[in-house]
Amino acid sequence: MKRFPTHILPLLALGLMVLSCGKESAGPADAIPQEVINKISAMGFNPDGIEKVDEGYRIERDIIITGEFLEGAHVDAEVPNAEQYRTFNVVNTGGNRTITVYIPQGGNNGFSSTYVAALDEAISRYNAQNLDLVFQRVASSGADISFSRLSKRDERRGVLGSAGFPSSNGNPYGQIKMSGILQSTYGLGVNGIATIMAHEMGHCIGFRHTDWFDRSISCGGGTSNEGSGSVGAVNIPGTPTGANPNSDLSWMLSCTDGGNRPFTNNDQTALDWMYNGNY
After folding, report:
1. Mean pLDDT of 200-224
2. Closest CA to 208 of 133, 273, 270
3. Rounded CA gap, 85 and 274, in Å?
4. Where are the domains of the chain?
5. How far is CA 60 from CA 25, 57, 121, in A?
6. Is the pTM of this model over 0.85?
């Protein structure tokens, strides 16, 4: 595998923790009830590193598990060591669906013009695949997917972004939280930010991490299996076995070096199978 020296960016928790080789201690407010940890484990997820956030709980470094999801039915299915994965829930396109996306601009809670350009680039990458779903940026709130700023605390801790998976009624997950300091603190440009945005958008429409079964493939360190959980980790037909960041820098790998990752041939195969005549 390709190791990214000193600046691997986990697609949720990059930078400050990685660069400093340290971890911020959790205070009493961060304590997770044992029953929640037990339930996360029973669902098939690895609870290591679970965090309490406004929407519920964050696992797998950038996946949001809501309280509603915790109370839902849980079915475990695991297909290890294959290249591309989807969740059980997908977006219903009806053969032709437009997903609107909103990003606020300016002010303390908005994003710079670089982020807007990055979102336009991420959208263009998806739309160039001629899928049954297209993304469209809109200028007002109330969109299918809305971007918002992570908390200052999460930004200081090096969190890049977070999102969830589609709902059981066939709608995409509706919120992506992004760090607003990717450009100023980490020096990322339009393409690097676009890659992270496209990654989180991928979760919203039902894609799991390419290397969920072994995060060390892209993140380094020891072997870490995220678990398939009740959301599922279903292999997408036509994609090869074994995630290989040396030759195939998938946009859905768990960790990134902050560089540009347009869709690979395998990514395009997965996108085409998912959203070209199937759903």
Report:
1. 82
2. 270
3. 10
4. 9-275
5. 18, 10, 26
6. no
Condensed to tens digits (0 to 9), the pLDDT of residues 76-104 reads 433 334 468 888 899 999 999 999 999 99
What's the farthest any 2 CA atoms get from each other in the chain? 49
Query: For the chain, what is the radius of gyration of the CA atoms?
Result: 17
The DSSP code sequence of 169-204 is TSPPP-EEEE-S-TTTTT---HHHHHHHHHHHHHHH
Answer left, alpha or beta for residue 70, where phi above 0 means left and psi between -120 and 50 means alpha. Answer: alpha
What is the pLDDT, as a whole number, of residue 191? 97
- Alpha carbon distance 88, 106 (integer Å): 37
The span from the CA of 253 to the CA of 250, in Å, is: 6
pLDDT of amino acid 153: 87
- Determine whether 16 is exposed, middle or buried from the number of CB atoms within 10 Å of its CB (0-12, 13-18, 19+): middle
**Residue 54, token pair as written in the block:** 């406004």
Q: How far apart are CA 84 and CA 171, in angstroms?
A: 21
Fold exhibited by the domain 9-275: Collagenase (Catalytic Domain) (3.40.390)
